[in-house]
Amino acid sequence: MDSCLVTFLPDNKKVRVSSGTDILNAGMAAGVYINSSCGGEGICGRCKVIVKGGRVESEPTGRITQEETKAGFVLACHSTIHSDVEVEIPPSSRLTKQEILTDEAKVHRLKGVFSEAGEVEERIELEEREVFSHSPLATKLFLTLPPPTLDDNISDLERLYREIRKKRDIPILQTGLANVKKMGRIFRQSNWEVTVLLGKRNGTTEIVSIEPGDSSGRNFGLAFDIGTTTIVGELIDLNTKKTLSTKAAYNKQASYGEDVITRMIYAGKEGGLEKLHHLVVDTLNELIMAAASEVEISLNEITCVMCAGNMTMAHLLLRVDPTYLRREPYVPIANFMPVIRAAEVGIKINPRGLLECIAGVSSYVGADIVAGVLACGMDEEEALSMLIDMGTNGEIVLGNKDWLVSCSSSAGPAFEGSGVVGGVRAMEGAVQKVEITPGDFEVKYSTIRDGKAIGICGSGYIDCMAELSKAGVIDRSGKIREGTGSPRIRETEEGLEFVLVHGDETATGEDIIITQADITNIIRSKGAIYTAAKVLTNKMGFELEDIERIYLAGGFGNYLNIDKSVSIGLLPDIERDKFRFIGNSSLAGAKFALLSYDAISKTRATAKKMTYIELSVEPSFMNEYTGALFIPHTDIDRFPSVKLQD
Amino acid sequence: MDSCLVTFLPDNKKVRVSSGTDILNAGMAAGVYINSSCGGEGICGRCKVIVKGGRVESEPTGRITQEETKAGFVLACHSTIHSDVEVEIPPSSRLTKQEILTDEAKVHRLKGVFSEAGEVEERIELEEREVFSHSPLATKLFLTLPPPTLDDNISDLERLYREIRKKRDIPILQTGLANVKKMGRIFRQSNWEVTVLLGKRNGTTEIVSIEPGDSSGRNFGLAFDIGTTTIVGELIDLNTKKTLSTKAAYNKQASYGEDVITRMIYAGKEGGLEKLHHLVVDTLNELIMAAASEVEISLNEITCVMCAGNMTMAHLLLRVDPTYLRREPYVPIANFMPVIRAAEVGIKINPRGLLECIAGVSSYVGADIVAGVLACGMDEEEALSMLIDMGTNGEIVLGNKDWLVSCSSSAGPAFEGSGVVGGVRAMEGAVQKVEITPGDFEVKYSTIRDGKAIGICGSGYIDCMAELSKAGVIDRSGKIREGTGSPRIRETEEGLEFVLVHGDETATGEDIIITQADITNIIRSKGAIYTAAKVLTNKMGFELEDIERIYLAGGFGNYLNIDKSVSIGLLPDIERDKFRFIGNSSLAGAKFALLSYDAISKTRATAKKMTYIELSVEPSFMNEYTGALFIPHTDIDRFPSVKLQD
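^ Those are the sequences you sent over. The predicted structure of the assembly is below.
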């Protein structure tokens, strides 16, 4: 039997797959999201499912206990389907544990986690850097061509070139056969009044398309930050430079691994690259569709897309094999990707529209960081500056106008609201500020846009950690203290947890909690980032105190409490006015690059100029990291302001 | 009934077409060639066929007599099929009247007319003009890349660019996503030894493809002269510049009209453009296949194609609408066509290989003429020169290094062996030289490669005309004289004809004849060319005697008798050493352009520099043309050397 019907419980979702398909893949095909953070390697054991009926063959694994085996548990990634089967996904294996919600709330919640397209993300608007000329990746130009006469009977194409060159100084102007084929008819039917779309493509200017009449007033583009966990897109009016809509969603690849390493491993499997490629493209397409329909723009009027993502994301987006990124000597296939037609990779905008990926530096410092440098402008400053981008990979750049070095650390997706029980993206209803009274552990919180609480976003977690520590709910090592007598602290099968918001106040009706595992997770994240900043700075012969400006980037929302970040040891304890929170700088940089050829040129220069430093080979690294797994640090003298409060 | 079975007699060829298809198109689909010189307009009346059975609807026409109607005659182009039908094609409507041949001879003969790929064409080799650097449209470069290390871990693409730029100075180097996708694997599997194919594309250099190992020794290209009647291709080793094979065939579009005007009309009909496009592409593909298999080259090793054709042919080749070429103010869609991938139009070479069309001047002076100027070099000379290209359109260029003017005349395909009863291309067995003894009209002739006579090529017709006139077979107006008593002159239903070669000496067993209609045809051709040369020269303020060099081009073969050409009034009566016969200069120019970027740059400059002059609006034109319809001319004083002989 070649085709098997798979029924996923409890949602009763059905899908037909060919015999031999593994359950993890079948789940994806059915739109059922099964946890998996190792990329289907059989290592993480997070994709346990229960086979209720039918024939499934499973590879041996140490991740399933004897009891679980008796109960029908298998690893979805290592079990193949050989007949019609029924598979139950237990709550622990769903991508979010808050699946069982009231119906309305469930829809709301799911929209956030796996929205067809995410809601508007709160984000910091960087002031537009006026240094860049307004010269978008694709520009529309309305032309009234003089009709040919016997005295002026040059060809249609020469006539078009002549008119364009009257308005623009373009050394190499070219076009493809598709436009030549339809040009004659369009010119004559539109009475020689046409709009040309000019695109900047690999150092030349291309006539991308020709439309009858004047459509120059409607020209739109998208800037994307393609993160390992979260993807955010801005729909921009290329004429006015205004952002019309911002949409965010989790990267659909997330089922295939939490971080870039597991994605790369998965991509190396048969069909894996294609799958991850299609998932990221699907995510982008859904965001595009949502943004465009919100502001009533036709996909045809979207003429270009600028993407900033880490090197793995860039490779997967373009369906380029990322295998060599993770193998010594860690080389990308290309860090300057060619500008292509978006349709070449299945992105649904104007069929002739362009897609450009901002250049990256190396396997582990990608375009998102280059875009961040562009956005904050540290590459133009005399002073020593640092950029800290707290994504799933925490990347750090140090330098000034003369030099730039960078490194990468595995921070994990906690600050993006993923991999933590109550986590959500920075969206309406996300808890972003928290205060906890010592003693009675009373909680005051505020949410983004004052929405009913749905979960905790990155900045909320930072606040929580600082407040939990200050109030004495957790100790310096992050352990939740027993015996406080507070009803907010309760014990479950999985250990202690702290109830931040009670169910009667939440959108879902469920308590919003912070578990011991969440806290450990967040401590690892903050420790990884601090360690990277410290080791990189020392490696270059500086102390953290020598840095005159620290730009903080990440998708936390429009709020980050510096004091609290310092108090948990996420950020170094230096003068507070040296910090500047710039939000999603990868997205901001992508917008600059979309809107200006100067900016995109600058990203190329930055990508060439920046040096990547592999921190894990530094002798001091492991010691530093171990010390950073405390609140704020084992060496409290490094955090004098925190010490003072104690 | 939607699908109808059509049986063509006498060959009993069958084809299924959808109801409503006209018989002319059904014939093409069946591989049956029906005469038609008006492009299916219902004007020429040459496509008469006899409906033997089945339902056919015919539009009224004055081209079919009442008697013919009774006998079942209809015009193929104006009759649609509405059931299974049987159609007989009478001999007069076949594209050649010499269809009924012995079996072997028939194959031989048909090979010449509608060969799957023509035989080697005799042609003049122009000396290679050493002024052009050796820089083909596509070049192969073998590279040994240093494998990446931790100290040198730039991306694969940068590594490739770095190595290419060590060997070549290339300002704008680019490549597409397809190569980026497969690059990583190729580099590693081939141990970092690869061959890149570099193509010159619209002012930039493109990495066209990447192959493992060293294939740089095998890189081939094709130069094509795409004529209205005849297409000739040369397969060239791009490394050694040597021509490996030359193939010629009639342009398969010929069934859809004899000249460019009828082709353009046909292209304007529903589906017409696609059909003509596919026919010329088919012709090219068959020639490519024949040439490549002859010298055992794989199509994959053919990396580029350079085409020279008139403006209509260039448009049809690229499937660009030629409609506006023939409508006032006569503008091409493009005379500088973009360089494309040959596969984009269905040309079967390396799937990523390039196709370039040499630039043309105007609707009626195309790339073939620009290529001709390149080949003869008249654009570099101080002296006043003229280029006369005797194709189906006779084009003439006058000028020197400072200026160039051109014009076009409708010569018809007679000099290419088409549209005349005994005509063949300049191929083995074609009668190319003729002497006729006055009095007994004894004929001495020689054929190309001394093959058994199969027909008369262009140069043979010129000799014939001169000799028929000298011997008194025809009078000054071209009429065959009655009452000479010679058995070579005979009367048929269609009028008088002259038997040049008796059937016992021919390859086909059939007499090779020249009819009165043929003679009229040739007089019109020679008159059109002389008139154009004369009027253009006078228009520019010169006399024909002022011209210091006349380059004669055309697909006559490797022989043209200047004296005889003058004696029939085809060429002006000036010093004989001013003439230089250069053969197929369009093909020679295409070869230069294929092999050198300098040459292709020169064609662009020439196309821009040359002015087109419309002769038909000159007041003197019609008088001049009427005078030229005599042998040699009504004004014998213009031909003093001929007058002297009289």
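The radius of gyration of chain B is 26 Å. Chain B touches chain A through 47 residues (CB under 8 Å).

Shout if you want it in another format.
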